[in-house]
């Protein structure tokens, strides 16, 4: 039993690192709101990506964050056609409005994308950004244009 508990403790610890980093970036002390913000952006991103790329991105997420990412996913309904920054942020807002009002979807999206960019390989981020329309890709940190390798 100790080894099983250790696996879950490790998964929880890695997920807490992601949530703490996002909390710090947003300047929030509200853990449930931070988790909701992460979930909203992850779901909007997941739903905008082709299913194969959505799965590839998840491979580098901690187990619990991966569970949040895939919760409620219907791959047959993706990718959604959010072509502009406003359309993408509207997807984020759809998830946020259930429990959070008066939050800045663009600020939250940029913070989550920064977190992902710092925690996921550069090659995977390049792949993800390459699948997004330019206006949405510009929400990621770093150069607006990511050259193909």
Plain-language structure description:
The chain has 149 residues and is mainly α. The chain has a single domain (2-137), classed as Globin-like (Orthogonal Bundle). Helix content is 66%, strand content 0%. The protein is built from eight helices and no strands. It has helices spanning 2-26, 31-48, 51-58, 63-70, 85-96, 105-119, 122-130, 134-137. α2 packs across α5 (85-96). The longest helix is centred in the N-terminal third of the chain and has 25 residues, at 2-26. The chain is globular, with a radius of gyration of 15 Å.
Spell out the blueprint of helices and strands:
Layout: H1 2-26, H2 31-48, H3 51-58, H4 63-70, H5 85-96, H6 105-119, H7 122-130, H8 134-137
In short:
By secondary structure, the chain is mostly helical. 66% of the residues lie in helices and 0% in strands. It has 8 helices and no strands.
- Helix amount: 55-70%
Q: In CATH, what is the class?
A: Mainly Alpha
Into how many domains do the coordinates divide?
1
Gyration radius from CA atoms, angstroms: 15 Å
Note the total helix count. Answer: 8
> Could you tell me the number of beta strands?
0
Strand content: under 5%
What string gives the helices and strands in order? HHHHHHHH
Named at the architecture level, the CATH assignment is Orthogonal Bundle
């Amino acid at each position: 039993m100790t080894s099983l508990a250790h696996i879950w403790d490790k998964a929880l610890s890695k997920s807490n690192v992601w949530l703490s980093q996002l909390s710090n970036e947003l300047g929030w002390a509200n853990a449930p709101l931070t988790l909701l913000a992460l979930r909203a952006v992850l779901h909007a991103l997941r739903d905008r990506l082709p299913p194969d790329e959505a799965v590839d991105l998840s491979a580098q997420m901690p187990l619990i964050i991966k569970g949040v990412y895939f919760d409620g996913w219907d791959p047959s309904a993706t990718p959604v056609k959010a072509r502009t920054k406003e359309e993408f942020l509207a997807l984020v807002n759809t998830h946020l409005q259930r429990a959070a009002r008066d939050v800045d979807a663009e600020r939250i999206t940029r913070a989550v994308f920064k977190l992902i960019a710092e925690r996921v390989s550069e090659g995977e981020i390049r792949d993800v950004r390459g699948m997004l329309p330019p206006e949405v890709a510009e929400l990621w940190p770093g150069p607006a244009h990511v050259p193909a390798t």
